[in-house]
Amino acid sequence: MKGTEQKSSGRNSSLHMLMTNYGSEIGVLIALILYCAVISFLSPYFLTSRNMLNLFSQLSVVGLLAIGEIFVLLTGGIDLSVGNTMGLSCMAGGMVMASTQNMAAGILVALATGLGCGVLNGFLVGYVGLPAFIVTLGMMDITRNADYLMCGGVGINNLPESIKVLTKAKLFGINGYYFIIVLLFILTGWILNNTKLGRNTYAIGSNKNAARLSGVNTKLATLLPYVISGLFAGIGAVVLMSRFAAVDPNYGSGYEMNAIAACVVGGASLAGGKGSMLGTFIGVVLMTCISNGLDILGVSPYWQGVTIGCVIIGVLLIETYSEKAKSRSKSKNKA
């Protein structure tokens, strides 16, 4: 009997630990599975291999932006400029690429542009002490309008053919850059969980004063996530240029909200200190599946926006009530 009780107790303890550590991720994963099951029942086209590849193509850019965004959200900040930073990076890299027909030069300029915007955001937030919302909102306007000023509102179509190789190259019959994006999620997840950068990022978002008293360079630890966000905006720009072999001044507009929504749905807290790369990845997949599934069912884009907005608000409500329930439970236990 004792052995049976110990096994049962061990299972319950393991389950409790799993739910404590990965409760948000498990909840989002269940929602994703249920949604896919419903859409698959309603349409035979959803789970086809062609649509799955199309779905991953859709989530690739948002996924890259979400990787950078989660670093910022964990500090308690926000990067509203990440979408238009990607658009400006596209335009800067595309103009260089079109004028020189040098793919490497264009890629470097795109990455440097995204990185530069990230450094400026991080410096103003981390070292000057300006509010992240205001800084990145201003940067969003700057990058969006700089984009149009650079090109005069006209897109670029004469990129070198070699740029297409980055997203057309295949591995096991599947576009190779899909694997690279998954590896980037794994790598950045490892960084968050196992490095000083990751620990400091969580510490800043959990309690900035406590982090400073424990020896963390809070200014640098605040700057670096914005730099990472800008870098991934530049990487997203390279992927966009490769996919379409062209640049449009509208590239990137609105992508920041998709990235933030994916992070929040994946369990990230806007107050900082809570979230994971695994949850972010599942959130990106869920949000993309929602949009893709509604497209297949022929739902109006306006109703799609309403649906996604409701999902985000619903997740925030669940998180709020869950935190309140935990606080009440802790108060009762102390009493």
Report on this model:
The chain is mainly alpha-helical and 335 residues long. The protein has 13 helices and 2 strands, in the order H-H-H-H-H-H-E-E-H-H-H-H-H-H-H. The chain has helices spanning 2-42, 49-74, 82-100, 103-126, 132-151, 165-168, 176-194, 196-206, 208-213, 218-244, 255-265, 277-296, 301-334, and strands at residues 170-171, 174-175. A two-stranded antiparallel ribbon has the order 1-2. Helix 2 (49-74) crosses helix 12 (277-296). The longest helix is centred in the first third of the chain and has 41 residues, at 2-42. It is globular and about 65 Å long. The two termini are 34 Å apart. The mean pLDDT is 86.
Terminal-residue CA separation: 34 Å
How does the overall form come out from the CA principal axes?
A: globular
Low-confidence stretches: none
Q: What's the order of the H and E elements?
A: HHHHHHEEHHHHHHH
Strands of the biggest beta sheet: in what spatial order?
Answer: 1-2
Q: Which structural class best describes the helix and strand composition?
A: mainly alpha
Tell me about the largest β-sheet.
2 strands, antiparallel
Q: Whole-number average pLDDT? A: 86
Summarize the amount of helix as a percent range: over 70%
Give the helix/strand layout.
Layout: H1 2-42, H2 49-74, H3 82-100, H4 103-126, H5 132-151, H6 165-168, E1 170-171, E2 174-175, H7 176-194, H8 196-206, H9 208-213, H10 218-244, H11 255-265, H12 277-296, H13 301-334
Antiparallel strand pairs: 1-2
